[in-house]
Amino acid sequence: xxxxxxxxxxxxxxxxxxxxxxxxxxxxxxxxxxxxxxxxxxxxxxxxxxxxxxxxxxxxxxxxxxxxxxxxxxxxxxxxxxxxxxxxxxxxxxxxxxxxxxxxxxxxxxxxxxxxxxxxxxxxxxxxxxxxxxxxxxxxxxxxxxxxxxxxxxxxxxxxxxxxxxxxxxxxxxxxxxxxxxxxxxxxxxxxxxxxxxxxxxxxxxxxxxxxxxxxxxxxxxxxxxxxxxxxxxxxxxxxxxxxxxxxxxxxxxxxxxxxxxxxxxxxxxxxxxxxxxxxxxxxxxxxxxxxxxxxxxxxxxxxxxxxxxxxxxxxxxxxxxxxxxxxxxxxxxxxxxxxxxxxxxxxxxxxxxxxxxxxxxxxxxxxxxxxxxxxxxxxxxxxxxxxxxxxxxxxxxxxxxxxxxxxxxxxxxxxxxxxxxxxxxxxxxxxxxxxxxxxxxxxxxxxxxxxxxxxxxxxxxxxxxxxxxxxxxxxxxxxxxxxxxxxxxxxxxxxxxxxxxxxxxxxxxxxxxxxxxxxxxxxxxxxxxxxxxxxxxxxxxxxxxxxxxxxxxxxxxxxxxxxxxxxxxxxxxxxxxxxxxxxxxxxxxxxxxxxxxxxxxxxxxxxxxxxxxxxxxxxxxxxxxxxxxxxxxxxxxxxxxxxxxxxxxxxxxxxxxxxxxxxxxxxxxxxxxxxxxxxxx
Amino acid sequence: xxxxxxxxxxxxxxxxxxxxxxxxxxxxxxxxxxxxxxxxxxxxxxxxxxxxxxxxxxxxxxxxxxxxxxxxxxxxxxxxxxxxxxxxxxxxxxxxxxxxxxxxxxxxxxxxxxxxxxxxxxxxxxxxxxxxxxxxxxxxxxxxxxxxxxxxxxxxxxxxxxxxxxxxxxxxxxxxxxxxxxxxxxxxxxxxxxxxxxxxxxxxxxxxxxxxxxxxxxxxxxxxxxxxxxxxxxxxxxxxxxxxxxxxxxxxxxxxxxxxxxxxxxxxxxxxxxxxxxxxxxxxxxxxxxxxxxxxxxxxxxxxxxxxxxxxxxxxxxxxxxxxxxxxxxxxxxxxxxxxxxxxxxxxxxxxxxxxxxxxxxxxxxxxxxxxxxxxxxxxxxxxxxxxxxxxxxxxxxxxxxxxxxxxxxxxxxxxxxxxxxxxxxxxxxxxxxxxxxxxxxxxxxxxxxxxxxxxxxxxxxxxxxxxxxxxxxxxxxxxxxxxxxxxxxxxxxxxxxxxxxxxxxxxxxxxxxxxxxxxxxxxxxxxxxxxxxxxxxxxxxxxxxxxxxxxxxxxxxxxxxxxxxxxxxxxxxxxxxxxxxxxxxxxxxxxxxxxxxxxxxxxxxxxxxxxxxxxxxxxxxxxxxxxxxxxxxxxxxxxxxxxxxxxxxxxxxxxxxxxxxxxxxxxxxxxxxxxxxxxxx
Lengths: 682, 682
Description:
Strand content of chain A: under 5%
Oligomer: homodimer
Low-confidence stretches of chain A: 1-24, 40-45, 55-59, 65-88
Largest interface: A-B, 45 and 45 residues
C-alpha cells in the first residue's frame, strides 16, 4: 500500500547508540543512522541497490511535530530520527524563524543547529551576517547614487551637452543613419552622471575595504559560534574514520591519492570549459549585433525608434537564459570532473566540486559583463572605417552618453532578474510541487503513519541542496562587489533580496522540504576562499571600471591638463568648461563612403564621435596615448593601494577574537592539569 | 677564581627528569633545564637577577666531547646537559658536517636535530634545500647572461652606437661640460646588452615561477622531515603550558591580549620608521649628487675622468655602510616595538619581531635600489632646463648607455660586498675573539673543569643568533629574486655564497660558539610568510624593471610600430635599424643658457639626449605617451600573468606530499582503533 518508510534496524546500529550517552542530540543520531545506511549491509548491498531493487523507496529524516510522537528508543530504525526533546521542535523554529514577520529579528542559530545540524546553521549564520554587513554598504551606495541626483542639473558636463545644439554626432549602426544633435542625449547624460561621478571612486575603495572587513569579522563571528558548539578542535578525518571503524571493525583505510597527470587533465578540461564560457559571451555579442541588424531592418516602425534599447534589453534577457542553461551544464561538467578525480571523502569531494563549479559559474555569469565593461565600443575603429563582424555587421557601439550606461543597464537587468525571478522560482517550485503531491495522496488513519506520510509528501532534498543556496549567494556577492563601481545600488538590491532569501530558505527548509540529513562542519569550507578570491577580483574589476569604463580619468585629466583650471591659467569658469567639445573627435563627412545616403547630410560638414583621434588621418591622437597612460597608471595605483589597504585591514583585525583564543587555551590548560593530576598514577 | 659554571640544582628539576623515561634525548633535557632556569626561583628572583647580583656569571649548555665525561644522572645541574649517547656526539657532526671538504655532501639533518634541536636543524634543512634549488636558477641566469655574450657584437643596436660618430650627446653634469660622441659609449653599450636582452624577460618569469616552486617543494620537504621527527601534530601552546604546569603547579595561565590602540600605535611607528628608511635613501641620493659636484670640481685630474664611476662606486659603498648601521638601529627599534606590544609567549614574540625587523630591513636594503631602478634619471627635465636639488646641484642622470647599467652596477657591488664581507666578518669575528680568549685564560687541572672552561671560552650565543642567520638569508633571497631581471647573475652569486655559508655556520656552531639551547619547532615560522611576500614583491619589481628600466619595451615597440619591419613596410634590413636615432631626442644647442661655455661647441648645432621629447618646445612627444601606455600595459599584464602562473603552480604542487598525508591518517586510525578496542572497558 504505502511505500514503506520503515526498515529493519540493521546490525550494528543498536551498538552505536548504546555506546553513546543517552543525551545525544537528534542531529547526531540522524547522522549516525544516515551513515550506517550509506554503508554496505552484510550482504554487500548498499542502500542505493536496495532502492533500485524496490525493497525501499526512499529514506529521509522526519520533521519533528511538537513531540506528539514521543521518544522512540530504537533510534536506529525507520531511517528517521524522532523527537527526543520536544521543547526544541519544528514548531519552535516555525514560530521564531520561518515566518515573514520575523524578517528583522535575529535568527535562532542555536535552534537551527540543534534541528538541522551545524552545516545548515553555519549557512544561515553566514547569510545573516552578510545581510547585516550589507546595510552600511547599501547606505553608502545609496548616498553616492543620491549625491549624483543632487548634482542632476548642476553638472557642467550635462549642461554643456544639453546646450550643444550645433554639435552633430556621427551616425551609428548601419540603418536609419542620420546625424543626431548632441543635445538630444541630454537626459541620458544626466542619468549617466548619477552613477559616473567622483563618488564612485571613493565607493569602489570603500567596497574593497568593506569586503575585507566583512570577511575578517565573519571569521571572528564563526570562531565564536563554533566555540559555542564545542567544535573548535574538531577533526573531520578523525570522525569519519571513527564512524567507519565503529560500523565495521575490519574497515580498510582509504588513503589520500594524488596524481599529477589527473591534475593536468583537469586543468586542461577546466580551461576548455572556461573557453566555452567565454565563447558563449561572444555568441551573445554576435546575437546583439545580429539582433540590432534585424530590428533595424524590420518593418515595425515603433521598434525602429528604440532599436538600441530593445537590443540591450533583449540581450540581457538572452544572457539571463544562457546563465540558467549554463548553470545546469556547469553542474554536470563539474560533477563529471569530480568523479574523474575520485576524492577520498565526501567533504573533500564537495570542496573540489565547489572550486570547479564556482569557477565555471563565475565565467558564465561575468564574461559577458566583462565584454560590455571593457571591450564594447573600443574596437570599433572610427566612423569612416568601422570594424565589421564577418564583414557584414557593424560591431555595437557604446551608448551615446558613454559606455558606463551600457554596463549599468546590463547590471541592473541581470541583478534584478536574478534576484526576483530566482527567488520566486526557488519558492514557487517546491511550493507548487508540494501542493500537487498533497492533493494526490490519500489519508492514512494511524496518526504516526499519517505524519510519516505528510513528511513523505514534502519535497525531497538532495545532497547539494545547501550547496545550491551557497552558490547563489556567492554569485550575488560577486555582483555586489565586482562591478559595484558601475552599479552602486547593487548592495541595496542584495540587501532586500537577502532579507527575503533568509526567510524563504527557512520556510522552504522547515515547511516544504523533507528534513535535511544534518552534517557537522566547523566552517563554511571552501566558500571562504571563494569569498576571498571574489574580494581580490573585485579590486581589479572596480579599478578597471573606473579607469576604462567611467569618464572619471578623462575628466580629471582635462581639469588639470587642458581645461581652464590648468596650471598657469587662471579662470573663473567651471574647471570642466569645454570638456565635451574636447572629448569628441572630429570626422569630416566627406570621408564617409556614402555621404549622401545619410539623412540631413546637406548642411553638415563635420560630425563628432567619442574618441581621441586626429582630424586628419583618424589615427589615435597624442591625447589618446596620454589618457591611456594615465588610465593604466591609475589602475596600477588603485590595485596596489586597495590591496595594501586590504592587507593592513586583515592584519589589523585578528581572525580569531581574543576571548575565543583564551578559552581554547584555557581548555588545553584544564586538560593538561587533569592529566598531570592523574599523571603520577599511570 | 673561575667564575662558577655550576649551580645548585633547583627544586623541581629532578622531578621532571624522573617523571620522564630515561631515554630522553639530550636536546629535550637541555630544553627542560633551560626552561626551569628561566622561571623564577622560590625567592622570586629570575636567573637574570642572580646574574646581575654576581651569584652566577653565565649559563649555557656544554658541547659534548666524545663521551669522555660520561653520563651524569643529575641532568638538571650545571646548566649543561652532558653526553648520554656518545656515539652521536659533536665529533660526529664535526666529521660529517662542519668541514670544508664536505661542502657538496648531504647534511646530516637528523644528527643536527639530535644535537642542536629542531629549530637549528630546520634552518639547515631549509638552507640546504634553498642552495639545492639555486642550482637551476643559477644555471638559467648564467645562460641568459652568456647568450648576451654571444650577441656581443651581433646586436644591431651596439653596432649602430659604435658607428654613430656624428651624433653628439648633450653634456651631462655641471662641470667639464662637453659634447660626447655617441660612439664613445660603444663598450658600455655592448656591456649593457649582456643583461638587457630579450632573455631577461623570460628569465624574470622563470624566476617568479622558480620562487613559487621552491616554496611549494620546501613545504613538502618540511612536511616529510617533520613527520620523521614525530612533530606533525605538535602544539607549541600546549607544550609551553605543560612545562609551566610541571614546574610550578600553581602557574597562572597567561592570556592572549590584543588591543586595537596598540596595533594602531605600532602601525604608525612602523610607518614612521619606514619613512626614515626612505629618507635615508634620499640622503644617499643627495650624497651622490653632492659627491659628483665635489669630485668634478676637485683638482685631481685622474678623478675627473672617472667621476661617474667614482660616484657610483662610492655611493654603493656608502649604501653598504648605511645598511650596516641601519641594521643595528632597526634591531633596536623592532625590539622596542615588541616590548611595547607585550607578547604572550616567546615564540609569538619572535614571530612579531620577525615581521617588524624584516619590514624595516627590507626598506633599508631596497629603498635605494628602488630609487636607482625607477626614479633616477626620470625627473631630470631636459638639457636646457634641468631639475636642481635645492637649486644648486643637478640631479644625477642615468649612465649614457641606459639606466639598466646603474642598477646592474649597484646590485653587483651591494651583493658582492654583502656576500663576501659579511661572510668573512661572520667567520672572522667569532674566530678572533675565540682565539683571544683562549690566549688569555689559564689552564685548569681537573679534566671536567677544563672541558667546562673550554666551553666557556667559546663565543656566547644569544637568543637571536639563529634569527640573524635567517634574516641574512632572507635578505639574500630578496636580492636573488627581487631585481633579478637587472642582475641575472644574482642566483649564481647566491649559490656560491650559500655553499660557503652552510659550512661557515656549521663550523661556527660546532667549534666557535657555545652550544645553542635546543628549541623545538615544526616549521620555520613566520619566515615562510616572509618568503611568500618576497615572491610577490619579486613579480612586481621584475615587471617594473622590465617595463621601466630596461629598454625592452622601446625596442619591441620600435620593431613593430616605427621600424623597418612595421606592418606594411617590407624591408630586408634588421628590424632595429634606426632605433638609436629614433630613441634620442634632439636639443638645439642655441637653447642652452650658456652655449659658449661648453667645449667643442663651435660646430655642433644640435645635441641628443635619451628621452622622447619634441624638438620644438621640449615637451613629451606623442611617442613618449605611447611608450608609457605600452609600458604600463606590459606591467599590468606581466604582474597578472606571473601571479596567475604562481597560483596555478601552487595549486598544482600540493603542500603536503601524499605519503605524509597518508601516514598522518594512518596514525589517527591506529589511535582510534586502540581507543575503540579498549573502549568498551571504560
